[in-house]
Amino acid sequence: MLHTSSTNSAPRLRIAVPMSAKRARTTYAITRAARELAADKGYDEFTLDELAERAGVSRRTLFNYFDGKLEATLGGGPQLTQDDIDTFLAGGPTGEFVDDVAALVLGVLRASTEVPLERDDWLIGQRCFTANPKLIIAAQQDFEGFAEALIELLARRSGRPAADPEHHVLLGVLAVTFKISLHQFSSGDVREIADIFLDNLKTVRRIFG
User: Fold this and answer.
1) What is the model's pLDDT at position 126?
2) How far, in Å, CA of 94 to CA of 133, rounded?
3) The pLDDT of residue 179
4) Coiled coil where (predicted)?
5) d(Cα 45, Cα 16) in Å, to the nearest integer?
6) How far apart are alpha carbons 62 and 45 in whole angstroms?
7) What's the CA gap between 142 and 82, in Å, rounded?
8) What is the 3-state secondary structure (H, E, C) of the chain?
9) Rounded to whole angstroms, how far apart are CA atoms 110 and 80?
């Protein structure tokens, strides 16, 4: 199954464990194939045998990487590296709270896949989830648990309770900003998604002064 681990930093926070290049490529190939099949045929309509054939692996290999079809299609889910967590809790990387939370969000983007995603990968992902509402629900549940863990990290860094509305508002604004940035990227913006996100974050800060 996918190499992740839990941490005492916060509940339900997945820590990305470095993979070999071969394992990273195979993990990517399986999830890419699962999303292609879900987009083209529907999530309920393709079999594990079809997935293995499309990904170029054996059925047995599938279960060495993922627990099942749902996990393969969703991918590894949101993760962070321990280094990014430690840097954030230590007051970095910039020393400015909002910028450091934004850096943590981008850290999730980096840590959640060992193979850099191209524009086509994002487009296939969008087609996959749009065509299969049950996957949207599963991904949303996955993200909500991870977001709770991020809130705990923000609370530890700020010294304020996790229930402080500022933590939730900040994370919500960053999530919406990232969603808008992803739409721009998928719609043909030639910049890297991280650059789009950071530029949009500047716009948010300018709007709210």
Assistant:
1) 92
2) 39
3) 92
4) none
5) 31
6) 18
7) 19
8) CCCEECCCCCCCCCEECCCCHHHHHHHHHHHHHHHHHHHHHCHHHCCHHHHHHHHCCCHHHHHHHCCCHHHHHHCCCCCECHHHHHHHHCCCCCCCHHHHHHHHHHHHHHHCCCCCCCHHHHHHHHHHHHHCHHHHHHHHHHHHHHHHHHHHHHHHHHCCCCCCHHHHHHHHHHHHHHHHHHHHHHCCCCCCHHHHHHHHHHHHHHHHC
9) 8
**Looking at residue 31, what is its pLDDT?**
97
Structure tokens at 31: 């999830």
| Structural domain for 112, as ranges | 4-208
pTM of the model: 0.84
Residue 93: CATH number of its domain: 1.10.357.10
Whole-number Å distance between alpha carbons of 48 and 172:
36
Tokens for 34, please give them: 């699962």
Q: What is the mean pLDDT of each run of 10 residues along the chain (209 residues)?
A: 42 80 94 98 97 96 95 91 96 96 91 82 94 95 90 96 96 94 91 94 92
Q: Which residues pair with 5 in a beta bridge?
A: 15
Looking at residue 12, what is its pLDDT? 65
pLDDT of residue 71: 94
Token pair recorded at residue 157:
């860094």
